[in-house]
Write a structure and sequence with these properties.
The structure holds 2 protein chains of 2 kinds. By secondary structure, chain A is mainly alpha-helical. Chain A is built from 16 helices and 2 strands. The chains are: A mainly alpha, B alpha+beta. At the A-B interface, helix 2, helix 3, helix 5, helix 7 and helix 8 of A face helix 10, strand 17 and helix 17 of B.
Chain lengths: 345, 643
């Protein structure tokens, strides 16, 4: 297991290097002026017109050979300098760091019920193939797939907030924002729920949960639907395997056969898909964040793209690449725990 | 039986939809949801309406507008409103005019410098001070003085970034210099500002200090010539906001020295030392500016000289999605929301929501033509040539292009369908209520044949032959702007399928950077609105000057070609009108200028803004002043449950 882990870890710098090369290649497709924005402290640096632009291009060596520029660029990145974001009115790195906890919190709460629900529903559907429960679950997942997120989001918002006033948009109520911003509340993680627990503040914790309900339901439903379908297919495949037949022949109870033999082996594709789902969510869930007034990475990235904020878009691409690399590693490390054959291979 | 529980619950939820009753939430806190965003906290740097909401509430000026009045004032940091009667306005033998502002004593900034036992001065919140600490406030460190006012005005003028600051320069030099750079170049006898050496910098500083002077506890303004709107400018919540000199210096800003101001001239926004800090003396102080969340929280300043405001906090938050804003208003989580005019009737019919309509406004909305625009990597002009894939940088220099665009817009459709017939077409720079406005002056109407006629003549026929592709900019979330641009886009494509207009929405702060961030404009066409800062159409901030002077605000961001057109055709008349005494004759000239804006198709004038606010019914006290564009002064606002 250690050798396997080390082997996987050793891939990370290589993969990240390859990803930075790709992002840099994309960046090189931009004009020197556009690339310059990833170096200057703000858009006002261009106030001097064409002469100023030419001077800055010279200053930042944007006409140098590509490998020289790459070295300079990667050096900047390693120092945390990703340029100035016009949309966030702050350095890109600072914007990403300040928005990440909001998105992470949403992802954690949406992912856990999503994956657990998908495993359970997918397994039930697989075990009860072509029975009413299977039909019901399939209908549920088809709806989840086909229901546009903005329609579902607005619907739940109108019913559960507009009509009942139960679950408001945003991250915290106004009173809670004041309390969180006060001296008596220490920010440890940026995750409202976690910070509330660490500060021993139950009202803030409950308020944060209240605000998470609707975006989490919206997000979970969509992800649950896709992962349930994968789990169902995988479970069906697993139930047809010889080892399941052997287990049954040994006289094991159907419950043990399904949970310990079929379900565990069926999890591998789900873990792969789940890893990608989490990565996608950490990359931002633009529509969900917009509808629920939830300022996270998704809204930031979408705004940056719409506003042609090149440094922010490139910074986001780097961030997303990093997320992908880390989640791939986690998924890779989970495989051998679920299937020892992976370790041996 | 169990299988029916879920569906039954869903149906019940929908049936009960709308049954929830909002109660007053967050007592003492006003939550204002809009689509805007602020650019900076430095009052000298700002010049747009969104920022006014912060500056008007956090900083003090010498004077304030009196309620809704646009030409009456009340004392603020100045204890009196200067007038000839009280002897605080004096005429000099050389034609100059002197304004004297006696400075109020005992007005403190939100943070003051308290001297510790070790002699070190620490900036602390005035509201948190003990009596002993109040007694230890270091002289000059927080109690505003005439020196602070002089520093603030000079800093704004020398920073020279916003057109509001430049208007002060123009005011005190009687229009001789449009900005500090022109003044410095002239005094130093050089051609470019970069050539101005240290001695030149000191010279212009000293010249400015002769016009903005301190006389004991009075601030004295010396104008080269009479300027009727002086008091109006001094009451505007931008460059004339007063900051504490010592505090600004401690933030690393200009130290007040004669030859040290150049590094602080036109700073990059992020490098501006006061970009994200505030220390005014207004009724509220910035508690938090969360740029990533696009949220500003202002907290009540209990040490405000007129006593604390009734609201404890004000939250300005950007929520681009209209449905979300509306639901928050209905639920009582928001108290005021920016509302698209097309939803006004629907919103007004909801219980607990108050719509106040018909508020006077002197604000026109237009599509601005700019030329030449930046040719350096400018995505808005595509290929940069008239080859069907772009436009040349000076595309709008051809009057036939401008006239073609103006005939391609369906103004009546926009007035009827977007504005629900609540407002009127904008007839030129001057709106109803301003001198020079005539209800029968010519306006463009939708006429595709005439548009085609002009397009065929434009650019020697090349335009019609090759077509064009260009991008127009607008601020995010403005549905009426999108409607205007969409209608134009479709009409242009109908007139000639080779005409491709793209629409780019930008968040307001980014939009501001693109349009008036300095240098050459990058947008060939943009949707914007401008209003005069006083009721006279002339002078640096008057409606006619705004649009039609070569040194006006619009010219400042519309490119050199636009400026040249204004210089050649409009400046002489503007100058003549401004110096005339006979009001009837002046009116004729301003009416003529209005007509000329039609003849030269300077701008696509769309509509006059319709004034309204949408609030919860527990919000009272709003005072609408059209000169500050309806920006909210939160000091008199109350939030109380209706009995």
């Amino acid at each position: 297991m250690l050798a396997y882990t080390l082997r996987r870890l050793s891939f990370i710098p290589i993969v990240f290097f390859a990803l930075t090369l790709m992002i840099f290649a994309m960046q090189m497709m931009l004009t020197p002026t556009q690339r310059m924005l990833t170096y200057v402290p703000g858009p006002d640096a261009l106030k001097g017109g064409a002469a100023q632009v030419a001077a800055l291009i010279e200053k930042y060596g944007l006409n140098d050979p590509a490998h020289v520029q790459y070295g300079r660029w990667i050096g900047n990145i390693l120092q945390g300098n990703l340029g100035w974001s016009e949309t966030a009115r702050m350095p890109v790195a600072e914007a990403l760091v300040s928005l990440f906890p909001a998105t992470l919190e949403l992802v954690i709460f949406a992912f856990v019920p999503g994956i657990l629900g998908a495993i359970w529903l997918g397994s039930r559907a697989g075990v009860h193939l072509n029975k009413p429960i299977d039909h019901g679950i399939r209908l549920f997942t088809v709806l989840g797939w086909s229901f546009p997120v903005f329609v579902f989001g607005l619907l739940v918002l109108m019913v559960f907030y507009g009509s009942f006033g139960w679950f408001p948009p945003g991250r915290l109520s106004q009173w809670a924002l004041v309390e969180v911003g006060g001296d008596g509340f220490r920010r440890w993680t940026g995750l409202n729920t976690a910070d509330a627990v660490l500060n021993g503040n139950l009202p803030i914790f409950l308020d944060a949960l209240r605000h998470l309900v609707l975006p989490v339901v919206t997000l979970s439903y969509v992800n649950l639907a896709s992962m349930t379908r994968v789990m169902r297919t995988s479970m069906l495949e697993s139930l047809r395997q010889d080892y399941v037949r052997t287990a049954r022949a040994k006289g094991l109870s159907e419950r043990v056969v399904q949970s310990r033999h079929a379900q565990r082996n069926a999890l591998l594709p789900v873990v792969t898909v789940a890893g990608m789902e989490v990565a996608a969510m950490l990359g931002g869930v633009v529509i969900t964040e917009t509808i629920f007034d939830y300022h996270g990475i998704g809204q930031f990235a979408a705004n940056a793209a719409a506003n042609l904020d090149f440094p922010a878009v490139l910074g986001f691409a780097l961030y997303f690449a990093l997320v992908l690399v880390i989640l791939n590693l986690i998924v890779d490390l989970l495989y051998p725990l679920l299937d020892p054959r992976v370790r041996l291979a | 039986m169990k299988s029916w529980i879920g569906p039954s619950l869903g149906i019940a939820l929908l049936a009960l939809s709308g049954a929830a009753q909002a109660e007053l939430k967050n007592p003492g806190t006003l939550v204002y949801l809009w689509t805007d965003d602020i650019r900076t906290l430095d009052p000298a740097y700002m010049a747009d309406t969104a920022n006014t909401y912060v500056s008007i509430n956090t900083y003090m000026r010498l004077l304030n507008y009196k309620g809704s009045e646009i030409s009456e004032f009340v004392p603020a940091l100045s204890t009196e409103v200067p007038s000839l009667e009280n002897g605080l306005i004096k005429s000099g033998a050389d034609g100059s005019v002197t304004y004297i502002f006696p400075i109020r004593k005992g007005v403190y900034t939100h943070k003051v410098g308290v001297k510790g036992a070790d002699g070190a001065i620490a900036w602390k919140l005035y509201d948190d001070l003990t009596d002993a600490e109040k007694a230890a406030i270091a002289p000059g460190y927080g109690e505003l003085t005439a020196e602070d006012v002089q520093y603030s005005l000079m800093r704004a003028v020398l920073q020279g970034d916003s057109f509001m600051a430049n208007a002060v320069t123009e005011m005190i030099t009687a229009g001789k210099y449009p900005d500090i750079e022109a003044w410095a170049k002239d005094l130093a006898g050089v051609k470019t500002f970069d050539e101005v050496n240290e001695a030149g910098l000191a010279k212009v500083h000293d010249a400015l200090a002769q016009k903005i002077k301190v006389d004991g506890d009075k601030l004295v303004l010396v104008l080269d010539a009479p300027f009727p709107a002086t008091l109006g400018i001094m009451a505007l919540p931008f460059a004339t906001s007063v900051i504490d000199r010592e505090w600004a210096r401690d933030q690393g800003d200009w130290d007040g020295g004669a030859a040290t101001w150049k590094p602080f001239h036109k700073p990059e926004m992020g490098a501006d030392k006061l970009f994200q800090v505030e220390n005014g003396s207004g009724p509220f102080m910035v508690e938090d500016w969360d740029r990533s969340q696009k949220k500003v929280t202002m907290k009540r300043f209990n040490g405000y000289w007129q006593g604390p405001a009734q609201l404890e906090r004000v939250v300005l938050r950007s929520v681009p999605e209209w449905t979300t804003r509306l639901l928050q208003l209905e639920a009582g989580d928001a108290d005021v929301v920016q509302t698209p005019v097309e939803f006004l009737e629907e919103v007004g019919s909801k219980p607990g929501i108050k719509v106040v309509e018909g508020l006077p406004k002197v604000f026109g909305r237009s599509l601005f033509y700019m030329w030449p625009v930046s040719a350096v990597d400018n995505p808005a002009i595509g290929s940069g040539k008239l080859d069907g894939k772009g436009i040349p940088p000076d595309f709008f220099s051809d009057i036939d292009v401008r006239q073609g665009f103006n005939y391609a817009q369906d103004y009546q459709l926009l007035l009827d369908d977007v504005h629900l017939g609540k407002t009127v077409q904008l007839r030129g720079p001057t709106v109803r209520g301003i001198m020079g406005y005539r209800p029968d002056s010519p306006v463009y109407t939708y006429d595709p044949e005439k548009a085609a006629e002009h397009f065929k003549k434009a650019w020697g026929g090349q335009l019609w032959e090759n077509g064009f592709e260009m991008t127009a900019y607008m601020t995010q979330g403005r549905t009426e702007a999108h409607a205007a641009l969409s209608v134009l886009q479709q009409n242009l494509a109908r007139i000639n399928p080779k005409f491709k207009l793209k629409i780019q929405e930008l968040q307001s702060a980014t939009f501001a950077d693109k349009i008036y961030g300095g240098g050459d404009p990058s947008a060939p066409m943009a949707y914007m609105g401008w209003g005069p800062d006083y009721s006279d159409p002339g002078g640096p901030l008057g409606a006619a000057t705004y649009y039609l002077a070569s040194t006006g605000l619009v010219a400042g961001m519309s490119g050199k070609g636009y400026q040249e057109l204004m210089r050649d055709k409009f400046d002489p008349l503007l100058k003549q009108a401004w110096t005339m005494v006979d009001q009837a004759e002046r009116e004729k000239i301003y009416a003529k200028l209005q007509e000329m804006s039609y003849d030269y198709a300077t701008t696509q004038f769309l509509w006059e803004d319709y004034g309204f606010i949408v609030t919860r019914d527990w919000i009272d006290g709003y005072v609408h002043n059209m000169i500050v564009y309806g920006a909210w002064d939160f000091y008199p606002i109350t939030k109380k449950e209706k009995q």
